[in-house]
Amino acid sequence: MLVAMAPLFLLIMAVVWATSRGSAFYAHPRVAQGGTQLDYSTFGCLKFRTMYADADKRLERLLATDPSFRTEWTDRHKVVGDPRITPVGRVLRRWSLDELPQLLNIVRGQMSFVGPRPITLYEVEVFNTALDRILSVPPGLTGLWQVSGRSDVGFEQRIVLDLDYVQARNLRTDARILARTVGVVMSRAGAY
């Protein structure tokens, strides 16, 4: 897949660099498989960069000054019309192209094609006792959350979906999720 996608990778890298003059890739810290609530390691979950270079500072400022942003961020850890996202980034996210570099995470053994959504460091406390069960399997490029509404699904429901996946995990379930992913990406359902 990486070889077949190489021309698309190069095109996206060039467009990201040309429009925002920064690195085309972003390695977001995510909690690795096998961790627990008290002891976990992280890996860099690769994405094409879709946000401005100072996105972390912008997030702090928005959380401190914009109550509606803060409320939506607390509920979903995503925000409709997030002002930190570049115009090119919006296109990449809408078509889920920003996640293609995660194929490299799969090759490295850090992720799987199907699994729970990779957990960020600021989400760890919210997962409570569910964290250990969810981290018992590798995080996925796609998963039950992604095919069940993505960003339209609240954070608590995401945890339930991830736990459901871990309990029902088998090859047939993975095949169904992979097949549904194509339709979800093409329809752009839940993509912000």
Question: H/E order of the elements?
Answer: HEEHHHHEHHEHH
Q: What's the Cα radius of gyration? A: 16 Å
Distance between the termini: 25 Å
Helix content: 40-55%
| Shape estimate | globular
Helix/strand/pairing class, anyone? mainly alpha
Per DSSP, what share of the residues sits in E-state strands of 2 or more residues?
A: 5-15%
Most strands sheet: 2 strands, antiparallel
Number of helices: 9
> What number is the mean pLDDT?
88
| Widest sheet: strand ordering | 1-2
- Quaternary class: single chain
Overall structural domain count: 1
Number of strands: 4
How does this structure look, described?
- 49% of the residues lie in helices and 10% in strands.
- With 192 residues, the chain is mostly helical.
- The chain has one domain (2-50, 85-187).
- The strands form two sheets. A two-stranded antiparallel sheet has the order 1-2. Strands 3-4 form a two-stranded parallel sheet.
- The two termini are 25 Å apart.
Concise summary:
By secondary structure, this protein is mainly α.
Write the layout of secondary structure elements.
Elements: H1 2-20, E1 25-31, E2 42-48, H2 55-65, H3 67-76, H4 87-94, H5 102-107, E3 112-114, H6 124-127, H7 130-134, E4 140-142, H8 155-168, H9 171-187
Helix pairs in contact: 2-3
Protein traits:
single chain, 192 residues, mainly alpha, two-stranded antiparallel ribbon, two-stranded parallel sheet, 49% helix, 10% strand
